[in-house]
Amino acid sequence: MKGRIHSFDTFGTVDGPGIRFVLFMQGCALQCKYCHNPDSWEMNAGSQMEVEEILGEIEPYLEYYRRSGGGITVTGGEPTLQAAFVARLFSACKARWGLHTVLDTNGFCEPEHAQELLKVTDLVLLDLKMINSDKHIALTAQPNDRIKRFAHYLNEIQKNIWIRHVLVPGFTDGYEDLSELGQFIGSLNNVNKLELLPYHRMGVYKWQQMGKEYLLEHCPTPTDQEVTRARDIIDLGIRARQADMKGIGD
Question: What is the spatial distance between Cα 185 and Cα 155, in angstroms, rounded to a whole number?
């Protein structure tokens, strides 16, 4: 079995705990307006690689991953589009080296499609773009019903997750939207961490190279104060939802 690979990074430090081998898969059903890898959308692009080839790329750096409490993270694109391949890769990493495995996903996946993959996944980084369905379509070109189902499934099986949310001024930073995001997170009891990722422009050149119109051309990077404000609003939503759930249970 071969996987469609976009690229990889042997010294990742922001996609899970420790130092990590980060594998970017090819193909994604979402087309986020702020995507920094639009060249990963097309499913039939990229390079084809066997699991053994990828293991060969990992092995020289094993000591760094082990000493730092790191491992392997598979991201994209969207890795669940190639769930069977990633499951085989994670299984091999665990059997051969006992490596910690992280799946970085937008959750646009029916739970039954990823069951075998999740069995060999230690941590899921779940990227929640927008809870409001209409706004989610406007931002990503896809609805978010499937994403919500996937999030609830992760909660049901008690899979450890980190929630990620990209803070884009004028798009994902509205009070109501952040509050709704917090309330959704508050309905889950398997969230170990919340990461607010400030919007950046590092992938704009790819849009230009591909001849795609970049609609966020004049969008600024959020300030530290704006990030703090967003975190406070989300936290309020989380506490409100948890209080409601506690009241229902009493």
Answer: 10
